[in-house]
Structures are given as structure tokens and as C-alpha cells.
Amino acid sequence: MGRAGGRRPGRGVRGSRRWVAAVFLLPALVLLGALVVYPIGFSVYRSLFDASGNGFVGLGNYGAMFSDEAIVTALRNNVVWVVVAPTVSTALGLIFAVLTERIRWGTAFKLVVFMPMAISMLAAGIIFRLVYDRDPGRGVANAVSVGVHDTFAEPVPFPGAKPRPRADLRPSGGGGFTTRSVVRAGSPVLLPLVAAAQDDVRGARVAVAAGPRPGKVTGTVWLDFTRGGGGRPGVVDRGEKALAGVVVEAVRGGVVVASARTAADGSFGLPAGRAEGARLRLPAANFAAPYGGVDWLGPALVTPAIIGAYVWMWAGFAMVLIAAGLAGVPRELLEAARVDGAGEWQVFRRITVPLLAPVLVVVLVTLMINVLKIFDLVYIIAPGSSLRSANVLALQLFQSSFGTDVDEGLGSAIAVFLLLLVMPVMIVNLRRVRKERRR
After folding, report:
1. Same domain membership, residue 397 and residue 335
2. 212 and 303 inside one domain
């Protein structure tokens, strides 16, 4: 008699039907081999040859990679990216997910935060290139910084003004000016300035040459410029404008012994007991250039600025995944902790975060793999003058393989090295997935 059910020996899926599984798997295996295995193998092979592809150099490209200053900078920046960007994105995602869990408009807020994920890296790069523009009239970041600065900082009276040539004033460092000669009571000091903006002196009173005053060292600060031409250099001519509000300091031995501000007619007076025998200084605070904002895309800040753009895009991704995990947290545990007297911070730190640990690891690992491959944002946002300072491995791979100094051997070595950096993170992720399946 045949077997129960009429099955023939070896007709199970694991028997003679294995060829059926092979047929179904074959297209995927072909694609995997063509798009993954072959490129990896060829990159390893090509990394062992020179730029021409004919000369075998062994591990020479790998040695050159670690001796190249641009690649070392890229590697250093990649470390910063891997440490900062995933951590900040995950932390913000966790905060947003927890804080918006029980509010009525939480869904709308999550939608707004997640919306940048719908924007391509190219579009985000263009947006933030404008956001970080140095001109406050175009760049949002500098418009905000200039607004805050101008709100709390004392305005500069006459930015850009400077002494008239051959006047008794010399630069004293930092943008200030000091008289060459010492001052005496009874001998008024004339401090002529030029190059003050017309908008700053519009409406100013006519300058009046200060006269001697008992017990005072007097003088005048004015715009030594006669409208329409004419006038005598270094002399207060009729119609010339006074510079009011200019700080004048008496300095002796590098120490300020007295100070005053010019009046509406440009005159000032200092106590003779302190100022006599000293030199007069017009500090740099009178002439400092207007605050132009922060050079966000300069060599010092370009990498943090680009990381900020990345966080803006990916914090929504982290928030959505963490919110999904938060929905599965047993509410009974949270309520029991609150009944036992735990505060919201204790509930968050002792219960919510430990229960969300698997989700947080998934988000963190995913973002770490993502930032190791970051290329678009850096290439688009960083200007040419700061591109070397913002360099990352993926961008250096592109430049070495397809840039002006093409060296496919070095580019392949960078690609292999980047793969080796990604592999440990991928292995950790795969092990975590297997553990989750066993549960």
C-alpha cells in the first residue's frame, strides 16, 4: 500500500521540489549577484591596482588613503557624523513621540515633523544652503541671529568711520584710534573723522569747535567733510556735521583714566586732573562694522550646520518608529508606576525608555548606517571654500573616482574601507533581528 494521503516518497517541499524553490529564488540571486556581489568583488580587485588599472600595487592604495590629508579629514568628520547625527535624531524623535502622545494635536505635529522626509536630499540641501546664507536678508539662520544680537547689543554710533589722513590719530589695535600726542588742559583737541555713512549723520547738528574750559580737557569729534567740496582739512568748517555719542577715553600707561561721550555738537570734556598728560583714544566700539551674523558655512561650523540639516530631515523618521513602539508599551505598567508615586520623569527613565530599548536600537543602527553613506547634503550645502573641511568618506569616494584627479584604485580602496565600516553595524543589526525572531 502507498503512503497515507497518496503522497509519493520525496515529493515534499524539502524533497524533489527543491528545484521549484531554486527557480523562484534564481531571479533574486541573479540580481543580488549582479548588483551586490559583483560590484563588491570588482571594487576589492580594483583597489589593488594603480590609477591606470595596469600596475599592481597591492595594499598601496590603502596606505595612501590613511596618509592623504583630505581622506583623514573625511574620516574624522565621519566619526563626528556617526556619533552626533544618529544620537541627536533619535533623542529628538523620542522626545517628540513621548510629548505628543497624549495631546489632541499630536498627530498634526507629527505630520509636520515627518514632512521633511518627503523632500529629497537635493531639495533639502538647496533649502539649507539658503537658510545658512551669510546675508541676513536671505539666510533665515542669520536673520534670526542678527535680530537677537541687535536686540541686546548696544548699537555702534558710526560704523566704518576712520580718522582723516594726517590727523593726530593712529591705529591702536582692534579697530580703535589713539592720539600721537598727549593732551593738556586749555588746549582743545580736534579729532576729525571721515567715511561716516550719510544715513548715520543725517539730521546731526552742526559741529562746534570746543573752547577751553577750566579744569577740563576739551575737544571736538566731527565729520571733516564739507558737502559740495571745499573746506580745510583738520578744521571745523561751517556746516560740517558733529558726531554725537562717540566714546572718548583718556589712556595713560594702557589704563583708561577717564572717559566721556561727545555731545550733540560733537564736543566733549574730560576732568583735567585725570586726563592731562594722557593720550585720547577712540575705542573700536565706535566704529565696529555692523553685525553680519554667523558664518555657518565657514570651515569651523560647516559640519555642525550640515548635521543640523540632516537632523531636520531624519528626526521625523525616528519619531514615527518610536511612536509605533510606544503604542505597544503596556499602559498598565505606566499607570501602576504613577499610582506607586513615581513622577513623570521617573516613569520615562525607568519604564518607558527600557521598554523602548529595542526600537531605539533599531532607529540608532539604521541612522548610523545611513550617515556612513551621507553624500548629497555635504556636496550641495558646503561651498567650495569649505568643502575640504566638510569632507566625508562617501564624498571623497566620489571625488577620487570621478573628480578632477581621477584615481579609481584609491576610490575603490575607499569604497572597500567604507564597506568594512558598515559591516559591524549590519552584523549587530542582523543578530538583533534573529534574537527578536527567536522570541
Report:
1. yes
2. no
168 with 125, same domain? no
Describe the crossing of helices 408-438 and 393-402 by its angle, rounded to 10 degrees: 140
- Domain residues for 187? 162-286
Question: Following DSSP, what letter does each residue of 16-49 receive, concatenated?
Answer: TTHHHHHHHHHHHHHHHIIIIIHHHHHHHHHTTB
Instruction: Give domain status of residue 417, yes or no.
Output: yes
Distance separating alpha carbons of residues 310 and 372, to the nearest angstrom: 12
d(CA 46, CA 266): 76
Q: What is the pLDDT of residues 263-293, one digit of tens each?
A: 999 999 999 999 999 999 999 989 887 787 8
The verdict on residue 73 lying in a domain is yes
| CA–CA dist 260, 258 (Å, integer) | 7
Boundary (domain end) residue, out of 226, 259, 286: 286
Tally of structural domains, the chain: 2
Instruction: Please write the tens of the pLDDT for every residue from 147-198.
Output: 888 888 777 888 889 999 989 999 987 889 999 999 999 999 999 999 888 8
Do 281 and 362 belong together in one domain?
no
- In 3D space, the residue among 379, 369, 385, 363 whose CA is nearest the CA of residue 124 turns out to be 379
Based on the domain organization, do 252 and 300 belong to the same domain?
no
Over residues 189-230, the pLDDT tens digits come to 999 999 888 888 888 999 999 999 999 999 999 999 988 777
Residue 341 neighbours by CB distance under 10 Å: 7
pLDDT band of residue 340 (cuts 50, 70, 90) is confident
Q: What is the pLDDT of residue 94?
A: 94
Distance CA 176, CA 172 (A): 5
